[in-house]
């Protein structure tokens, strides 16, 4: 697979396992403490033998989601000027992201809102590689689809104006 980074993948898998385990435990606590019938203790509710399917589901989802939830998208352009860079930063800003670095032809953005960052397990960074004749946008699939579409529309309108 071109561009596959095993360490980033494993880091994401580990983060999602921890994150979803915590979410499930919080939900189980809420259900346990809001239910009227407490014939068993909370520890009996979460003992390993009774939660095997849940553990398998969390691990399986955590292993698959990084493949499905993250991607790259190319936006074709003939050039990338300072004016285009400002427009790209504006497009990202309107989409809820701020620029955190711009080095060696690569801009990195992260979400402005801390709540979004937490719910995305701090895997909210989007990179825009502007070296060459095409832009490469990499990050969470739903964000890069929207942003790449806006960038594509911008470059089409600039070409039509020339």
What's this, in brief?
This protein has six helices and five strands; from the N terminus they run H-H-H-E-H-E-E-H-E-E-H. It is of the alpha+beta class and 162 residues long.
Could you walk me through the main structural features you see in this protein, from its secondary elements to its overall organization?
There is one protein chain. This protein is of the alpha+beta class and 162 residues long. It folds into two domains: 6-67, no CATH class; 71-161, 2-Layer Sandwich (TATA-Binding Protein), CATH 3.30.310. The chain is 56% helix and 19% strand. It contains six helices and five strands, in the order H-H-H-E-H-E-E-H-E-E-H. It has a five-stranded antiparallel beta sheet. A hairpin with a 2-residue loop joins strand 2 and strand 3 (106-111). Helix 1 packs across helix 3 and helix 4 (82-94) packs across helix 6 (141-161). It is elongated, with a radius of gyration of 21 Å.
